[in-house]
């Protein structure tokens, strides 16, 4: 077996090692291998596989405990302290710059409100604000550099946390939007294959969720019908074992197809 085949084997071994960490991530990464190895004209690359894995996590930005939501919400603690510091700054300004009277009382009240809000922020509310800040920074960066794809990505990050789990981020329309963002990125960056890696990775998440009892409403809001093949019971021991089995089987299938296309 040639060097290229050995590289595919090493890639699949790495991807399958990620199964226990996150089935969606593993399936997305394996899908990236499939895109690079089976789609004509698409270069096989580690960056493309990583993009597919990232895209496979994107639909769950609507869930507070999702892996990607926690990573992109890295500013969560900073958001809390930002409100506290804003309250302290407003209190200082009110004390030194405003004369005693209604305006000063209003200033101190607003400062207290900011401080209490910052200290009270926990969990979901802080995470959502952190994601809004992350998304807003992406939007501004996209506008500054003239990258529409980056601004659209920022809007997606801002909006997704405020939606119900498995609602609009788990639709064919969101998949099309994500693929279009990849297409625009390809136009700006000149990296052929971004749209294919991104779109396939995103779609792999919806397909995987369609194997659960809840299923996926692919065509919201046009249809409330939930497409599902209830094989997996999420959170159960049997469901976890089945997830691992599906990931392993999918990985081996892709590996076989990729090797079958190679010329020795």
How much helix, percentage-wise, in residues?
Answer: 55-70%
What value does the Rg take, in angstroms?
A: 23 Å
Quick one: biggest sheet?
none
Shape: elongated
Alpha-beta classification: mainly alpha
Treating each run of at least 4 consecutive H or I residues as one helix, how many helices? 11
Tell me the domain tally. 2
**Terminal Cα separation, in Å?**
7 Å
Which regions contain 5 or more consecutive residues with pLDDT less than 50?
16-21
- The proportion of residues in beta strands is under 5%
Average pLDDT confidence is 80
In short:
InterPro entries: YdjM-like. The protein has eleven helices and no strands.
Descriptive overview:
The protein has helices spanning 3-16, 23-38, 46-57, 67-72, 76-97, 102-120, 123-145, 148-159, 172-189, 194-209, 237-261. By secondary structure, it is mostly helical. It folds into 2 domains: 20-61 and 164-263, no CATH class; 63-162, no CATH class. α5 (76-97) packs across α7 and α7 (123-145) packs antiparallel against α8. The chain crosses the membrane at residues 31-57, 78-98, 104-122, 129-162, 168-185, 240-260. GO terms for molecular function: hydrolase activity. It holds the Pfam family YdjM. It comes from Hymenobacter persicinus.
SSE diagram, text form:
Layout: H1 3-16, H2 23-38, H3 46-57, H4 67-72, H5 76-97, H6 102-120, H7 123-145, H8 148-159, H9 172-189, H10 194-209, H11 237-261
């Amino acid at each position: 077996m040639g060097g290229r085949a050995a590289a595919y084997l090493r890639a699949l071994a790495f991807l399958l090692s990620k199964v226990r960490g996150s089935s969606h991530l593993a399936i997305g990464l394996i899908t990236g291998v499939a895109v690079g190895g089976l789609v004509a004209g698409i270069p096989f690359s580690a960056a493309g596989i990583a993009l597919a894995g990232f895209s496979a996590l994107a639909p769950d930005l609507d869930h507070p405990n999702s892996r990607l939501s926690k990573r992109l919400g890295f500013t969560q603690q900073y958001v809390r302290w930002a409100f506290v510091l804003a309250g302290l700054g407003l209190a200082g300004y009110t004390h030194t710059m405003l004369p005693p009277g209604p305006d000063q009382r209003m200033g101190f009240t607003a400062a207290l409100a900011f401080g209490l809000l910052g200290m009270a922020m926990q969990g979901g509310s802080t995470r959502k604000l952190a994601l809004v800040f992350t998304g807003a920074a992406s939007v501004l960066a996209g506008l500054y550099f003239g990258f529409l794809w980056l601004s659209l990505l920022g809007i997606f990050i801002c909006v997704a946390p405020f939606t119900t789990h498995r609602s609009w981020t788990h639709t064919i329309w969101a998949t099309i939007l994500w693929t279009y963002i990849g297409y625009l990125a390809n136009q700006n960056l000149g990296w052929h294959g971004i749209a294919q890696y991104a779109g396939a990775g995103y779609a792999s998440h919806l397909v995987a969720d369609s194997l659960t009892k809840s299923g996926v409403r692919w065509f919201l809001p046009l249809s409330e019908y939930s497409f599902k093949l209830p094989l997996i019971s999420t959170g159960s021991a049997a469901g976890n074992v089945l997830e691992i089995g599906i990931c392993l089987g999918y990985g081996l299938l892709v590996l076989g197809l990729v090797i079958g296309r190679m010329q020795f």
